[in-house]
């Protein structure tokens, strides 16, 4: 686990990343992302299969997953909310024209009353946030009694990096299955977790380094932990 950055600097970095991601989605077919990365599609399908009632998607990004959530027959289509820190990504999400609502907020400070949602999603979030304990406490707070927390996060990410100059600097930590199970249990969730498969061959992606926001290329395999926990 790397040393936590200065919160002000990190939030600025994340906002810049959101702006760049939004520009990327404007120039490309967002749905092609799922065609090009079938493991991501599998991850989204699994998340959606766990949902029902009112749903909060924390760190929703451009809202891509929320466009699929509204088609899930067991969710309340008028009570699907996505939150993200990036104004640019949320603005992009409005163009899906779905019933989902998008609100700018951080994972550590969710602007909702206690017990507001049946399900809360933390999809590829715990590796990013400055304080995962506060994030999960907030998720638990806004969950209804016996509500469901749905989590995906990279599995022991450093293990799978290939020819990498350094791990993704926007990822502050990664978990093993045991670590994530214990983490959710510590916060009062009856949890189970299973690893996904991996893409067979490494693929290249670019990311930005802390020193000067320069692009570097990294080869990696996608491997996730899938976890769901019931609020006790």
Description:
With 232 residues, the chain is α/β, with parallel strands linked by helices. It has a single domain (7-158, 174-200, 224-231), classed as Vaccinia Virus protein VP39 (Rossmann fold). It is built from eight helices and ten strands. The chain has helices at 7-27, 30-36, 38-49, 64-69, 87-93, 132-142, 157-160, 177-186; strands at residues 53-58, 75-84, 101-104, 117-123, 143-154, 161-162, 189-195, 203-208, 215-220, 224-231. It has a seven-stranded mixed β-sheet, with helices on both faces. It is globular, with a radius of gyration of 17 Å. The chain starts with 6 loop residues before the first helix and ends with a strand. Mean pLDDT is 79; it is low at 208-214.
What are the key terms here?
globular, seven-stranded mixed β-sheet, Rossmann fold, three-stranded antiparallel β-sheet
């Amino acid at each position: 686990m790397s040393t936590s950055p200065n919160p002000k600097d990190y939030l600025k970095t994340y906002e810049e990343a959101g702006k760049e991601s939004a520009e990327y989605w404007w120039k490309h077919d967002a749905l092609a992302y799922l065609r090009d990365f079938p493991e991501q599609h599998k991850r989204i399908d699994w998340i959606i299969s766990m949902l029902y009632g009112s749903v909060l998607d924390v760190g929703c990004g451009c809202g891509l997953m929320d466009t699929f959530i509204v088609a899930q027959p067991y969710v309340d289509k008028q009570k699907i909310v996505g939150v993200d820190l990036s104004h640019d990504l949320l603005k992009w999400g409005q163009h899906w024209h779905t019933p989902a609502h998008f609100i700018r907020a951080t994972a550590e400070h969710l602007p909702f009353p206690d017990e507001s949602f049946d399900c809360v999603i933390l999809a590829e979030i715990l590796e990013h946030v400055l304080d995962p304990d506060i994030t999960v406490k907030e998720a638990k707070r806004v969950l209804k009694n016996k509500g469901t927390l749905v989590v995906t996060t990279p599995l022991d990410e450093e293990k799978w990096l290939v020819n990498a100059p350094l791990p993704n600097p926007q990822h502050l930590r990664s978990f093993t299955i045991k670590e994530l199970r214990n983490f959710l249990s510590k916060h009062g969730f009856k949890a189970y977790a299973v690893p996904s498969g991996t893409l067979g061959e490494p693929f290249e992606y670019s990311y930005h380094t802390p020193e000067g926001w320069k692009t570097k290329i990294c080869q990696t395999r996608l491997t996730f932990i899938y976890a769901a926990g019931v609020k006790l």
